[in-house]
Specification:
Elements: H1 5-13, E1 29-31, H2 40-49, E2 58-62, H3 67-75, E3 80-83, H4 88-105
Parallel strand pairs: 1-2, 2-3
Helix pairs in contact: 1-2
Length: 114
């Protein structure tokens, strides 16, 4: 889990403190819109602009109920937009359901051939 948008991008692109480490992409990104340093929509914009992460599933998981946030998220290529439940128990249940769908049921795009 990244503490802000800059760390998330460093992790996903193996830059900054993650330079030369790993390089294995997660199966899905749960992205909050209200991240410190680099906001979530900019993180999404950069993910979709890079060939390595263009097809990486991104679920916006946020407290925002703004129609414009939802519209912009989908325009930038989010795969899903989920409002965070306020209650912690409901939040945990929602995250578990998201994990079940994206990690077990969802079929990822096939790997690109060189």
């Amino acid at each position: 889990m990244a503490r802000d948008g800059a760390v998330a991008l460093d992790y996903l692109f193996c830059t900054g403190e993650y330079f030369g480490k790993g390089g294995i992409l997660p199966q899905v990104v749960l992205l909050d819109l209200k991240l410190p340093k680099i906001e979530g929509l900019e993180v999404l914009r950069q993910l979709r602009a890079d060939e390595r992460t263009k097809l990486l599933p991104v679920v916006i998981l946020t407290s925002s109920n703004e129609e414009q946030d939802r519209l912009t998220g989908y325009e930038l290529g989010a795969n899903s937009y989920v409002r965070k439940p306020v209650d912690f128990t409901e939040f945990i249940h929602a995250v578990n359901q998201l994990g079940l769908y994206w990690l077990v049921l969802n079929e990822r795009p096939p790997a690109r051939r060189p």
